[in-house]
Write a structure and sequence with these properties.
By secondary structure, the chain is of the alpha+beta class. Helices cover about 50% and strands about 15% of the residues. It is an enzyme of class 2 (transferase).
């Protein structure tokens, strides 16, 4: 059912509300992200570490807030050893944050992402009476923290070789006393299981209150995201169970749940904390599987929503690629499949591009919710690009894919809610219409009866028209037979007389031959008129259109017919209205229009007595952008019963306006077809003061 005019504003209002809610969601998300990135950002410049030391003696923890310990740390890189050889450290410096394979050590040495290193930083600060705290991010892939020589925290078991190290990644907050003016931090890090080793994001130092506030905000934000994803996922799973044919609900539920799984595995790692038996290897496998399945289910959702724009073959290709990537994650070691992260990201980016292309087409076709979906997918693609740069060490940021996916999910939740709302609205409208139809059934029956009566009257009129057309066709055949038989009979008689030497005098023979030629020319003219009329009626004529100024056209007609009319004793005038613009033009085929006016003027000349008048007047209408040309004569006029039929072919009646000696009877039919080919119309009537008037209306040039 097509939407009525009343529902269109409601749909636009719904779209506006959804757009405003989406903008509010983006603003809240971005504000939360900014708090995580730069919480309590001080006004004055932040000190940076240099050569393994950072001076914070001028830093006020209560006024300036937390500070990232970025800069140049002391760093010992340990060579890989075999057998019983002792590991030899290579002392240097290293920029923090930064993964080993993407930064160069202070001595110019290039590091690899698999190995063992020790970070050291000396912090100079004021003596603190209250507790201080350090916020540690996820560090690849095992580390142990020492403060002033004391081990205070470990994640996994760092070791000099893969055999003795055990990976585990979780962020942590460490509280310590800083009663002295110097604090030494040592961070032992090893990585033999992941493609990237080292410290990817910043380590933050501050007093316990600020660090606790930062930790609370991040935990709350991730829990909100995770809770929203799980609730939306189970909600749409329930919708699918209630209506199994809606595959889009199932795909959307899977998208929410897999994104929620990945969100719970990265960042604060809530799933890893809740499921203590879950080791690092299983967690990283689940993270990559959830990433692939998120892309697959998201693509399947948009395929189900817009099947006309996203073809089934793309979903099949997506399923095969997802199955191959998941098989690699299950079979291959984490060190290898994490090194193939570009393949996973390419998979998501490529099919996101397919979805974007499909949504662009859908938006152009005004599909329901296509524009909102396009905004959501575009936001997701931007966050995926951000995370690709971030995880490859080319960009300093945070993991934004969960927020991008949540934004996409919220947008599509709005779309589904909008569709349900429109469905209910249609159902209510149909119910109201059915009630109205039932209550006014008698009125409808009366209206239908009246319509049938009108249809019957129309059919009766059509029957009369068909009978008139059949009569016209019979008359047409009769006229053609008569107009062809008479000259042919005369020609036959002349030829027989010439053959039998009945006409023997040279002068009489010449007269006979000239008469025969005249009859042949008349036959050629009749045949040519018939051919031209058939071509015009079939609309197979190519007009040579040109812009003709109305004033120039008036002068042309005056030059063509003025002198001839005067020599025959007829007053001829061609005028242009005073209010007509000088630059007004019409677009016509001037040669064929000459044929129209030749037919009209010579017909008028035939029936206008000596001393009569023929007048052509031209005027323009600014409102309708049309030019009206009238040809008026002072003859006897046309009988009222003949007026409806004068443009029919071969219509000749033995009355004052139509004698049997007058032409082929095709001139006005040809004139009518030519005018209509120009997008105009031609009519005829008898003015009150006598004579006949033909009116031609043509469109003006743009």
């Amino acid at each position: 059912m097509r939407p009525t005019k009343a529902t269109a504003p409601r749909r636009r209002r719904s779209g506006s509300v959804v757009a405003i809610m989406a903008l509010v969601f983006v603003a809240i998300t971005l504000s939360g992200c900014s708090n995580i990135i730069s919480s309590d950002k001080p006004v004055k410049p932040m000190p940076k570490a240099s050569d393994g030391q950072i001076d914070l003696t001028d830093w006020s923890w209560t006024e300036d807030g937390v500070i990232p310990l970025d800069g140049e740390w002391s760093f010992d890189w340990f060579r890989s050893t075999t057998g019983n050889e002792a590991a030899e450290p290579i002392p240097t410096t290293l920029e923090v944050p930064g993964t080993w394979g993407n930064v160069r050590a202070g001595n110019g040495m290039s590091l690899v992402d698999q190995g063992y290193g020790v970070y050291r930083l000396t912090i100079l600060h004021r003596a603190q009476r209250d507790m201080m705290a350090i916020r540690l991010p996820n560090i690849s892939t095992a580390y142990e923290l020492f403060i002033d020589g004391n081990s205070v925290l470990s994640r996994g078991r760092p070791g000099l070789s893969a055999g003795i190290s055990a990976p585990r990644q979780l962020p942590a907050t460490v509280y310590f006393n800083a009663r002295d003016t110097r604090t030494d931090i040592q961070l032992t890090v090893s990585n033999f299981d992941h493609r990237r080793g080292g410290i990817r994001t910043e380590i933050v130092l501050g007093d316990s209150d600020h660090i606790q506030s930062l930790h609370t905000r991040k935990v709350a934000q991730e829990l909100i995201v995770l809770g929203c994803l799980i609730m939306i996922g189970f909600y749409h799973l329930g919708l699918f169970l209630l209506r199994r044919q809606e595959i889009a609900n199932l795909m959307f539920a899977l998208l929410c749940l897999f994104v929620g799984m990945r969100t719970g595995l990265i960042g604060e790692g809530f799933i890893v904390q809740w499921l203590e038996p879950l080791n690092w290897t299983s967690a990283i496998r689940l993270e990559y599987i959830a990433f692939v399945m998120s892309g697959w289910s998201g693509f399947g959702y948009f395929r189900a929503m817009y099947p006309g724009e996203i073809k089934r073959v793309w979903f099949r290709i997506s399923s095969v690629c997802a199955a191959l990537l998941i098989a690699c994650v299950i079979v291959v070691k984490p060190l290898h499949f994490t090194s193939w992260i570009l393949a996973f990201q390419t998979y998501v980016l490529f099919f996101s591009a397919v979805v974007l292309a499909g949504l662009v087409v859908s938006a152009r076709r005004s599909r329901e919710g296509a524009r909102l979906a396009l905004i959501g997918v575009a936001g997701l693609v931007l966050t995926v690009v951000n995370d690709m740069l971030f995880y490859n060490g080319w960009w300093r940021s945070i993991d934004l894919v969960p927020f991008g996916l949540l934004f996409l999910i919220v947008m599509n939740s709005f779309i589904i809610s909008l569709r349900f709302s429109m469905t209910y609205e249609r159902a209510e409208r149909m119910s109201t219409e059915l009630i109205g139809w039932n209550s006014s059934l008698e009125e409808k029956i009366a209206e239908r009866t009246e319509e049938l009566q009108r249809s019957n009257a129309t059919l009766a009129d059509a029957k009369l028209d068909l009978e008139r057309m059949e009569q016209s066709r019979t008359q047409l055949v009769s006229n053609i037979s008569h107009d062809l038989r008479t000259p042919i009979t005369l020609l036959q008689g002349y030829l027989e007389a010439l053959r039998d030497n009945v006409i023997s005098e040279p002068a009489q023979r010449d007269y006979t031959i000239r008469s025969m030629l005249s009859k042949v020319e008349g036959l050629n003219s009749l045949i040519q008129d018939l051919f031209e009329l058939s071509v015009l009626e079939a609309r197979k004529v190519e007009l040579s259109m040109e812009d003709i100024p109305l004033a120039g056209w008036k002068e042309r007609l005056t030059e063509q017919y003025g002198l001839e009319m005067e020599t025959k004793g007829i007053s001829f005038v061609c005028t242009l209205s005073d209010d007509c613009p000088e630059d007004l033009k019409v677009v016509i085929d001037i040669r064929r229009m000459d044929r129209v006016f030749a037919n009209l003027l010579y017909n008028a000349l035939r029936y206008t007595p000596d001393g009569g008048a023929i007048r052509i007047s031209m005027k323009a209408s600014a409102d309708t952008r049309e030019v009206e040309v009238t040809v008026t004569d002072s003859g006897a006029g046309i009988a009222s019963e003949d007026l409806p039929y004068i443009f029919d072919r071969f219509y000749k009646k033995d009355k004052s306006r139509h004698s049997s000696s007058g032409g082929s009877g095709l001139g006005l039919s040809i004139a009518k077809e030519i005018v209509e080919l120009h997008g105009g119309r031609i009519t005829a009537h008898n003015p009150p003061d006598g004579g006949c008037e033909f009116r031609i209306v043509l469109p003006t040039a743009s």
